[in-house]
Specification:
By secondary structure, the protein is α+β, with helices and mostly antiparallel strands. The chain folds into three domains: 112 residues, DNA Polymerase III, Chain A, domain 2 (Roll), CATH 3.10.150; 124 residues, DNA Polymerase III, Chain A, domain 2, CATH 3.10.150.10; 119 residues, DNA Polymerase III, Chain A, domain 2 (Roll), CATH 3.10.150. It is built from six helices and 25 strands. The strands form three sheets. A twelve-stranded antiparallel β-sheet has the order 14-11-12-13-25-24-23-18-21-20-19-22.
Length: 374
């Protein structure tokens, strides 16, 4: 195997695939990136057996071949190379890499030991706006459950219906739902693992300025797999078995109190109060005062003391109080970039609902936090 590539192209490719290399002692080759030189380019691949990533890097191939080297080592090494042409050749169980005055030999594992990444026979295809999808993922991924007790909650629900894509995630303590307008497509629903979608978001961020990537990302589905393709990069993942819970049942439709408040003002008040919240409970109490046109945020911790902060609010309805986990509330506030947010409350025993004000055309966002019951 002999090929040449630019340092920037090789670095970008390794940056995309190296994140999922798995540190499994039983199968060391999973720590490696599979490098295959063929035709007019080089294909870099990694897998952790749950998901696989593949990216094609433009280059000049003088001799076809394949080999695997440690993914993190290769990525860290190429990052430090000068901005010059990188010449790569395969010797006896080692990869020779030369760039400018720098040269090294990298030990690896024969490509035959690398797991086969099968091609996926897909039956359904969707073309989605890449930047809009990335933005929607940033608004829901933090609500994905990290527990393995309910596997379906460890993923994001993709629900295509009537010209819109609904993304939803919940860990039972909060719920995030983002709705995007898309072209009329086949109705479908699938649960995609949160870890895979973090990588999808990273791919879009890395390749968004590449002229070959375009503006759309292709999602292809089979019975058990989902494949995301953006530019020269492809990610395939197993989908989550099971049915996603009907979360719409917990979204309130009537409220006793509604208020519009400056997002940054509320973020600052919640952060200040959080310094005095109880460890492990992370509780802050929001008290809405219609007559005073403000919301008061407070927290008390026996050993540290008590803090009370307030910010102006446009309030409709009655005086109300609710206690929530400040981390969950901040996640929702930080997920949006609007100047103001609308908070809706029934009482201390029911969920708090958050909407950004002035939502982008064709998009809606709903965030719900369950209360801490006193």
């Amino acid at each position: 195997m002999i090929f040449s590539v630019t340092k920037d192209n090789l670095q970008r490719g390794l940056q995309i695939v190296s994140h999922i290399s798995n540190k499994q002692m039983n199968l060391p080759v999973l720590q490696n990136v599979h490098i295959k030189a063929e035709g007019g380019g080089v294909i870099l691949s990694t897998t952790n057996l749950e998901l696989a990533m593949r990216v094609r890097v433009r280059g000049k191939v003088d001799k076809e071949g394949e080999f695997t080297v440690p993914a993190k080592l290769a990525s860290d090494f190429v990052l430090l190379l000068p901005n010059d042409r990188v010449d790569v050749s395969l010797g006896d169980a080692e990869l020779s890499v030369t760039c400018g005055e720098t040269s090294t030999k990298m030990n690896g594992i024969d490509a035959a030991e690398f797991p086969l990444i099968p091609s996926v026979e897909t039956s359904v295809k969707f073309e989605l706006p890449a930047e809009a999808l990335k933005g929607a993922l940033s608004k829901v991924l933090f609500a994905v459950s990290t527990s393995e007790a309910r596997p379906e909650l460890a993923g994001v629900l993709f629900k295509f219906e009537k010209g819109k894509l609904i993304l939803a995630a919940t860990d039972s303590y909060r719920l995030a739902e983002c709705v995007l307008s898309v072209e009329e497509m086949q109705e479908c629903r699938v649960i995609v693992p949160g870890r895979a979608l973090q990588e999808v978001s990273r791919i879009i961020a890395t390749l968004k300025d590449d002229p070959e990537s375009g503006d759309a990302i292709l999602l292809q589905l089979s019975d058990s797999q989902a494949v995301f393709t953006f530019g020269n990069a492809e990610l395939s993942t197993r989908v989550v078995d099971g049915s996603y819970p009907d979360y719409t049942q917990i979204i309130p439709t009537q409220f006793a109190t509604e208020m519009i408040v400056g997002r940054q003002d509320l973020v600052k008040a919640v952060k200040t109060a959080s310094l005095f919240s109880r460890t492990g409970i992370c509780d802050v109490t929001l008290s809405v005062k219609p007559e005073d046109k403000k919301v008061v945020v407070q927290a008390t911790e026996a050993s540290r003391g008590k803090n009370t902060a307030s910010c102006p609010a446009d309030v409709k309805g009655k005086e109300n109080t609710i206690t929530v986990n400040y981390r969950y509330l901040l996640d929702g506030l930080n997920a949006v970039d609007s100047e103001g947010v609308t908070l809706k409350i029934i009482d201390a025993m029911n969920p708090l609902l958050l909407h950004p004000n002035g939502q982008a055309e064709g998009e809606s966002y709903t965030y719900i936090v369950m209360p801490i019951r006193q």
